[in-house]
Amino acid sequence: MDLEIAGKRALVLASSRGLGLGIAEALAAEGADVLLCGRSADRLSANAAAINAKGRGKAHGVAADLADPAFAETMIEAADKALGGIDILVNNTGGPPPGGATEMSVEVLQAQFQMMVARVVDLSTRALPAMRSAGFGRILTVGSSGVVQPIPNLAYSNTLRSALVGWTKSLSNEVAADGVTVNMLLPGRIHTDRVDELDAANAKRSDKPIDAIRESARQSIPAKRYGTVEEFAAVAAFLVSARAAYVTGSVVRCDGGAIKSV
Predict the structure, then answer these.
(1) Among 71, 136, 156, 232, which one carries the catalytic annotation?
(2) Domain check: are 130 and 221 in the same one?
(3) Are residue 26 and residue 91 in the same domain, yes or no?
């Protein structure tokens, strides 16, 4: 299927590794021009070079930090310079520290809110006018299955990413008539460095071998395995495509059936 995004301009946040990089690679493979961002300039440069070597969509990189209050303004300027604008915005952020709800600190919560929620809303709001004027735009926010079924020991993530669910649906209703779709994509157990870190943290907390933690996680998933970045990125590429023009305000799961509710 031709996703009809060749030549579209995509900004993918937190794309120096993991899910963000996988999404950027999938979009470039469809012919989109992509702007990668993250904190490591060297890693971004290497990733962009690898994408460009494949010869379809062009890739660029810009070092930026979600902790910077000027993040949204910086990214709009960088996208204008590298791409000439933004047709597709993939909001992706790193995860907050693990911990239970009774252990939450207001100071940590406020700091993580700025990076995981406020910056995403600010950047999306700044990108919207050009999308609405053009009659085409895609905003996709990567969340977590914890917004549907809270994940133990990830109270910060469950709390903050849930705020983005309400924002996604609210925004989608306001811009749908202008050709802009707004959706959220929820990864389950997708094998990334972040998941390895969480498995290690769970192993330490429970005093169990990490292999036992992983096997227990696999057995809790109907598919009996972790997903791959490529599988997740393929779903993301469809959701930001021209073909998905009638999909908006949706929260889509890519979790191998792990979430127990309907």
Answers:
(1) 156
(2) no
(3) yes
